[in-house]
Amino acid sequence: MKRYKVTLEKEEREELEAIVKKGSHKSQKVINALILLNCDEGLYQSRSMKNEDIAAVLRISMRKIDRVKRRFVEEGVEATLRKRRGKRIYERKVDGDVEAHLIALSCTKPPEGFERWSLRLLADLVVKLQYVDSISYETVRRVLKKRNKTLAQARVGHTS
What we know:
This protein is mostly helical. It folds into 2 domains: 10-81; 90-141. The protein is 59% helix and 0% strand. The chain is built from 8 helices and no strands. The longest helix has 20 residues, at 137-156. The termini are far apart.
């Protein structure tokens, strides 16, 4: 496994100590700052702790410490302290056209033998009518929930 050496400058140490000692910050930011401060092997650190000791004191995994150290070495202090954005991009299955069809279907009379539309019935019908290749009932729920919020705001008006 590749070892990453954390060496902090005086300004970086002061910034990290300020995060740890005062103000209100997100917990992961404080933990990352503590990891960097304890792993520091630079001139301004009296002693460096081992990863095992840091993991035991902070009650975190060794992998977390390795990830923080790697991110610090590769990207810097600021990148280590801020939350990492997800890289995955999901393609939306439901566009405005499918939403309109789904809402129109939910307003129609339910099939024979059913008192009202269920999410699963709507999902199956949307696939059967070939509006989409596949859709989960959870996606149907989100579309209809969004629609209900819009209707409620239209009835009451915006509060802002």
